[in-house]
Amino acid sequence: MLADYHMHLIHDGHEGKCPYTLERIEEYLRAAEANGIDEIGITDHCDRFREFRPVMEHLITGPGTYEAVTKWLSKRFSEPLDEYVEALVQAKQRGWPVKAGLEVDYMPGMEDAIREILAVYPWDYVLGSVHFIGKWGIDISPDSGWPERDVDQVYEEYFDLLVRAAGSGLYDVLAHPDLVKKFGHRPRRSPTPLYEKLVDAVAQAGIAIELSTAGIRRGEKELYPAPEVMEMCAAEGIPITLASDAHYPEHIGADFNRALDECERVGYTHFTRFEERTRVPEPLS
User: Fold this and answer.
1) CATH number at residue 210
2) Would the pTM count as exceeding 0.90?
3) How far is CA 31 from CA 44, 47, 248, in A?
4) pLDDT digit string (tens) for 196-253?
5) What's the sign of the alpha-carbon dihedral 153, 154, 159, 162?
6) Domain range for residue 184?
7) pLDDT digits (tens, 9 = 90+) for 16-71
8) How many domains does the chain have?
9) What is the dihedral of CA 127, 131, 133, 134, to 10 degrees?
10) CA pair distance 190, 197, nearest whole angstrom
11) HSE value, Cβ hemisphere, 13 Å, CA-based, for 141
């Protein structure tokens, strides 16, 4: 079997009521089946939900904000988390091959608040991601923040946040763990020491890392994470999940042939599924 464990029920630019319904989930399941995917994990962005406004509101208030971030987040935080989770629970109760997940930004200093929000819901797994360094959104636009930044310093800060996220105890999986390369920025210095620190932190935390095909559909034309990171993860025996980061049904399972080839290249024979935040190894098809 194959499972795609990172997807969103609506694209990022959507501004109306989000389709957190059984009908929308069924549409995703039909697309998954057509693309050879046996199980899906729904993981909408935490900034869709009202409950996360107190955790992230500092990104758009006070000094040092970024116009692109403010424009982005000012239209978010409108959905009740209860409705989203209830739709996923109902899908599972029908026997559908659906897992209840959430993608949650790591916000240093807000760990307890995030933990409190997550604790009351029956997640199968929680994805951890880093999209912000301070108040700067690293993946919103190549014209926001990047022109005045030192790329080597950005990489150091980004991977430091990933290491902290891994050790926070909040997450089961780190999502797109080198997203910092999204707009093609590469450090002058070798990133190998940063990769090593990340892999060590993930191994010590006992969590999984995501192998995502999303980068193939974007400008970098490369999987997340980079081949060197995958080699390190395989050598350490770090569990992996498979992911498309689909924002449309037709992207579910996209380019999984590339992901499977990468797994074979570095020596993975299993990927990881989740049941109520417990890992379940599954042979790679």
Assistant:
1) 3.20.20.140
2) yes
3) 17, 25, 9
4) 999 999 999 999 999 999 999 876 689 999 999 999 999 999 999 999 999 999 999 9
5) positive
6) 3-283
7) 899 999 999 999 999 999 999 999 999 999 999 999 999 999 999 999 999 999 99
8) 1
9) -90
10) 13
11) 11
